[in-house]
Specification:
It contains eleven helices and eight strands. With 267 residues, it is α/β, with parallel strands linked by helices. It folds into two domains: 147 residues, Aspartate Aminotransferase, domain 2, CATH 3.40.640.10; 95 residues, Alpha-Beta Complex (Aspartate Aminotransferase, domain 1), CATH 3.90.1150. The strands form two sheets. It has a four-stranded mixed sheet with strand order 1-2-3-4, with helices on one face. The structure holds pyridoxal-5'-phosphate (PLP). Pyridoxal-5'-phosphate binds next to loops.
Length: 267
């Protein structure tokens, strides 16, 4: 998908390391339309590379932490299976989707061939991501990891917090979602700032400063100087994220900084 981590943020590793030619499809709030997927699968032709894999991202970071619903994943899988194409789900933040919808992660994973999720990011671990799939896939991945110098000795030290994350941190995600909502709702009252409330689904959301006649970069500069760290997504779009280190009191502080900085640009 065009707005995917894999395409944007992995230094072109898809092509450089995996040797594949990605074809991106535009999403709708982070979700792919099965008809677009079907249209993109290359037919059998001597000039064409084989289409082997469709990748989806759940929740979708660049769309603002939006959830791809289990039925949407199934619809993609129905299309790909008919063409013998596999589905990989980049679900760094799948537990956010699961907690937000109050449904088991299995409801998402049952419709894909393999997947990954992060222990760091929302689950607060210092490091770590896991891939999940059939034994043969995992065996191959272990070899590739070794080849890329990603093997580790005595990895138990960093695996231990991963177990704590899985046992204790998942239930805390609801608080991050509530804080994100509080932040988003508070922002809707700020002159010149535009928040798409229906895209506020998990712990990430986007807002635009275009109506303040400034750019995301300049607005972020103002926020940074007052101690609020955020990232820009596009020329006018800024991303806010809540996580384990952010309490309700921090949300109040952040809102007051956002108000102040926005007022500076309104003048
Ligand atoms: C962080 C992230 C990744 C990569 O995770 P690593 O731990 O660096 O492998 C992949 N996809 C998404 C959506 C992410 O946010």
């Amino acid at each position: 998908m065009t707005e995917s981590h894999m395409f944007w943020y992995e230094v072109g590793g898809l092509s450089a390391v995996a040797g594949v030619l990605p074809w991106t499809i535009n999403g709708h709030s982070g979700a792919l339309d099965p008809a677009d997927v079907e249209a993109t699968i290359r037919p059998n032709n001597i000039h064409f590379p084989d289409t082997t894999l469709v990748c989806i991202e759940n929740t979708n970071n660049r769309a603002g932490g939006t959830i791809i619903m289990p039925e949407q994943i199934k619809a993609i899988n129905d299309v790909t299976r008919a063409h013998n194409v596999k589905v990989y789900m980049d679900e760094a933040r799948i537990f956010n989707a699961s907690i937000a919808l109050r449904c088991d992660v299995k409801e998402f994973s049952r419709h894909v061939d393999n997947l990954m999720f992060c222990l760091s990011k929302e689950l607060s671990c210092p490091v770590g991501s896991l891939i999940v799939g059939e034994q043969g896939f995992i065996d191959r991945a272990r070899k590739v990891r070794k080849m890329l110098r990603g093997g580790m000795r005595r990895a138990g030290v960093i695996a231990a917090p991963g177990i704590i994350a899985l046992e204790k941190m998942i239930d805390c995600l609801a608080e991050d979602h509530a804080n994100a909502r509080l932040l988003a709702e508070g922002l809707t009252g700020v002159d010149g700032i535009e928040v798409h409330m229906n895209a506020v689904q998990t712990n990430i959301f986007l807002f635009s400063v275009e109506n303040l006649s400034t750019t995301a970069e300049r607005f972020i500069d103002g926020l940074n100087r007052k101690g609020l760290l955020v990232s820009s997504m596009e020329k006018y779009t800024i991303r806010l994220v809540t996580h384990g280190g952010v309490e309700k009191e921090d949300v109040r502080k952040a809102l007051s900084i956002l108000h102040e900085v926005a007022q500076g640009f309104n003048r």
